[in-house]
Amino acid sequence: MVGKIENPAVPVTKRANGHYQVTIGYGGRTYRKTSRLWTYADAKSYERTWLATFRDKAFGRKPRKLIADAIERWLVDHVPRLRSERVTKRHCNLLMPYVTGRALEDAAVVWAEIKAAEIGKAPATTNHKGRILRQVTRMAWQEWGWLDRPAPIRLLPETPRECFLTLAEVDRLIAACVNPKVGEYILLAAYTGIRRGHLLRVTSADVRDDFIRLDRSGKTQTLQLVPLHPRVREVAKRLPLGIGDRQLREGWADAKTKAGIECRWHDLRHTCASWLVQAGVPIFTVSQLLGHSSVSVTQRYAHHAPADLVAAVSKLK
Q: What is this structure's pTM?
C-alpha cells in the first residue's frame, strides 16, 4: 500500500458562497475539489468516485480517470489556443452537470443519457456537448494514455440552418425596422457579409477609397479589404451608427416578426455569399471577400451557380 486514505468526518461541505466542496485526505495530504455547478448529490457522487480513485492508488491499481478531469486538462492544454475559447468554456459549463463524478470509460453512456435528457432541444445544441466528449476522450486515448480506445460518440444529425434571402426580403426587413439605424446595419451586412460583432466595431476611419479595412481582431485574424457596393457607401462613411449590440438585436428581432421572415443575423452573411455566386463571381474570389479561412468553407455556396457548372462541363471534349 502506497498511501492511506483519511476521509474527514464531513467530506462534503457547503462553502460561504454556496458552492459544495469535497475534501479527502490521502498520503498525508489534503485534497479539495469544488464546483459552482454541483448540487449536494453531485458532490457526493464525486466524493464516491474520487475515493475509489484514491483506493486504486493505495492498492497500486491504475486509477480511473474522471470525465471532469479530462475536461479540466483539455481546458488548460488545448482550449486557450482556440479562437472560440469563451464559447467553448460556456459549453463545458453546460456539460458539467452530466459528467460530475463519472468515469472517463463511461463517456459513451453519458452521451446516451445526454441525448435522452435533451429530447426536444435542437440537435446542434446537444451536439456541442457531444463534440466536447468526443474530443476529450480522443485526447485521453491518443495523447495522455488515459484510455485504451476513444469513446464511440456519434453526433445527432443536424438540419442545415443556412437561409438565403432575396433582395426583396432584405428590403422588407429594412422597411420593417422602427429604428432606421438597425435597417442600415442590415443593409451593410447583406452587401458586405461582415459579421455582426465586427460590423459594430467598424468606424469611418476604417473606410478608405470605398473599402472597409477590417482589423486583425476578427475570426480569421487577418487583414481583410471589403469593397463597398454603391448602395452602402454613404452609410459606411457614417459608421458607427450610434446603437449597441442590444439595440441591434432587439430591432432585428422586431423587424423579423413584422416582416414575417424567419432567419438569423448570420444568414445575411450567407445571403451576401449567395448573391455573389449567383452573379457569377468565382468561388475563390467569394472566399477572399468574406475572409474565409479556406476555399473549402466557401464551397457550401457552389450550388447557387448551376449554370456555371454546366458551362464548365460543356468545355470538355
A: 0.54
